[in-house]
Amino acid sequence: MGSDAETTTEPTEADVEGAPRGIPDHIDVARALEAILMVADEPQSVVGLAAGVGRPVEDVRAALAELVADYDGAAGGPRRGFELREVGGGWRIYVRGELDEVVREFVHTQSPAKLSQAALETLAVIAYKQPISRGAIASIRAVNVDSVVRTLLGRGLITEAFTDSETGAIHYATTELLLTQLGINSLDELPKISPLLDDGSRGFDDVR
Amino acid sequence: MGSDAETTTEPTEADVEGAPRGIPDHIDVARALEAILMVADEPQSVVGLAAGVGRPVEDVRAALAELVADYDGAAGGPRRGFELREVGGGWRIYVRGELDEVVREFVHTQSPAKLSQAALETLAVIAYKQPISRGAIASIRAVNVDSVVRTLLGRGLITEAFTDSETGAIHYATTELLLTQLGINSLDELPKISPLLDDGSRGFDDVR
Amino acid sequence: MARSPERQAPAAPPTASADEDAPAGFRVHLASFDGPFDLLLSLITKRELDITEIALSAVTDEFLTYLRGLDGPDELDEASEFLVVAVTLLDWKIASLLPQGELVDAEDVALLEARDLLFARLLQYRAFKEVSAWFAERLVAESLRHARSVRLEDRFRERTPELRWTTSLDDFAALALLAMTPREIPVVGLDHLHAPLISIREQAAHVVSLLRRGDPVTFRQLIAGADQKGVVVARFLALLELYRHAAVGFEQLEPLGELTVRWTAENWSDENLVNLGADYGQ
């Protein structure tokens, strides 16, 4: 299920007729969200979930907050073995961190090879200065970054954002997969690096 | 992810010493079980679960019954959008029946009608290298392919050919449906790609 | 940009991070400094040590000796990091060694700005290097987490929209080829080791002949037609040499922007060319 689903799916009959879609009134939004989260295999955006259950975004947001608290044991029940996290621009069920060790034997997910130091540094440059061309990355890293950029593209951590119509230079940006793999929800959660650069960074204006 | 997890896991030191394995004492069995059940793809046998958490079978059975009641709302909490059911000798979390319609609608609107580039590439790899395990695909594609393999299985384009008795790794093969989509009668009609690989393909000797 | 370097000192990354790497990393033994390379960098960025007192060639020799004792990927990482830093330091040192005098004219200001720019670049490089450790930590931590990601229940599969297949047989084969072609492994190009020797003097003669016509010329124009990197490098070094002889002036409006070169020599004779590039062994 992709987040870009809407663009490729035909409109349903309900859309065409303008009839109201969504869950019946007697079903609690939180329960419907729980059901959907059981089949989702990637983070689900609030907007996507709201469309799925046919309720306003605020209602969905409130229900998600309720579920988070519920699973954390704040609603009187036990602190569940799973939790609801907002990661990579959406919501998803995770095993609670302290139980990761317990479930490890039950899943054989192959974690991809670790990134080299050069790839990590290049990734950091792209994350903070995106969209950025290969040439601009190279001038910060002061080395040729072609193969590293290819690796990052291959891993789906960065993507080609656009091509400058004048210079023909491809500009790169990070993906939601990167956010997911970092366990953060948006680029705003990247550590601020400006204190290190404030004094010497004029001429490098847009570094956060 | 499979119920045959034990066969592929290296024995831990604890095994070797004959010491009891499993979850730390302070962790409730029910919490460990719900963590496992949240990520397990296949129904889990009571015996397998007992081994996983290192507790007696009766304790696990009791905890499972407790979870079923809990999710059904019998423990004071809400009647969850999901339920725990025993099917074919194993336990698995399913969407609760009365929410099927909500989930169906969601799945319908969220599933793209076209395969993603990543899915197509993975499918192509499977077509040319079948039967092939998920790990082998991942090492060729240099990315985690779990969700893509699930999509292809769900689309009926690939199928589980066999499970390696030694490693427990499931091997995948393409289906008749793929041949139909490609407009060919057998895999022999796939264009040969080896000549093109000759130049840089060492390590890929068995590509047809 | 032409502020005093001291005001920038607080911006320098803490020495602590340098100390962490110290036990395992590369150490430098010089008359003016004895300790880990990273600390040397910290001190230089804090201006507690004068860059002009450091013999970079001695540091490089020591580094090469150190590298021989290393093995595997560490070696490559350390080597590339050293190169990045060394190149920046070299730029910076060149700027430091060039004549300065009092702050009397625009050129001196420009020179100081160039130094600060290099300094900023070094800081920026170190900032990204430091923050990359955060990326590494997060990636590892998150790879240990388990998200629910299970196969869709059969009863829901039937509701997925019918597949629209648009890939031709040939495209399919091309995709397979694309996916199975091994990703290029980064290699260090060795071609330059066998590159024919290029004379800075000859390249300087070419540069001089272009510039003496009187009109300002951009660096891009100066290297037009150069089909080898070595020629470009030689022309660039020739320009630096000519600058040392006060034969040319530079103008660059923004970092990495177009570099314009003017002929400023008052008493130039082609005899000057004879000694040009002597420092480079030719």
Summary keywords:
heterotrimer; A: about 210 residues; alpha+beta; Arc Repressor Mutant, subunit A; 2 domains; 3-stranded antiparallel sheet; 11 helices; about 40% helix; about 10% strand; elongated; disordered N terminus; C: about 280 residues; mainly alpha; two-stranded antiparallel ribbon; 5 strands; about 50% helix; about 5% strand
Largest sheet features of chain C: 3 strands, antiparallel
In spatial order, strands of the major sheet of chain C run 3-5-4
- What is the CATH topology descriptor of the largest domain in chain A? Arc Repressor Mutant, subunit A
CATH class of the largest domain in chain A: Mainly Alpha
Order of helices and strands of chain C: HEEHHHHHHHEHHEEH
Number of domains of chain A: 2
- Class by alpha and beta content of chain C: mainly alpha
SSE order of chain A, as H and E? HHHHHEEHHEHHEEHH
Shape of chain A: elongated
Provide a descriptive summary of the structure in words:
By secondary structure, chain A is of the alpha+beta class. In chain A, 42% of the residues lie in helices and 12% in strands. Chain A contains eleven helices and five strands. Chain A has helices at residues 5-8, 13-17, 29-39, 46-53, 57-71, 100-103, 117-129, 134-141, 146-154, 176-182, 194-197, and strands at residues 82-87, 90-95, 132-133, 158-163, 170-174. In chain A, strands 3-5-4 form a three-stranded antiparallel β-sheet. In chain A, strands 1-2 form a two-stranded antiparallel sheet. In chain A, a hairpin with a 6-residue loop joins strand 4 (158-163) and strand 5 (170-174). Chain A is elongated and about 60 Å long. With 282 residues, chain C is mainly alpha-helical. Chain C has helices at residues 15-21, 37-45, 56-68, 72-97, 106-143, 154-157, 169-180, 200-211, 219-222, 229-244, 271-275, and strands at 27-29, 34-36, 217-218, 248-252, 259-263. In chain C, the strands form two sheets. In chain C, strands 3-5-4 form a three-stranded antiparallel β-sheet. A two-stranded antiparallel sheet of chain C has the order 1-2. Chain C is extended and about 90 Å long. The two termini of chain C are 37 Å apart. Chains in contact: A-B, A-C, B-C. Chains A and C meet through helix 3, strand 2, helix 7, helix 8 and helix 9 of A and helix 4 and helix 5 of C.
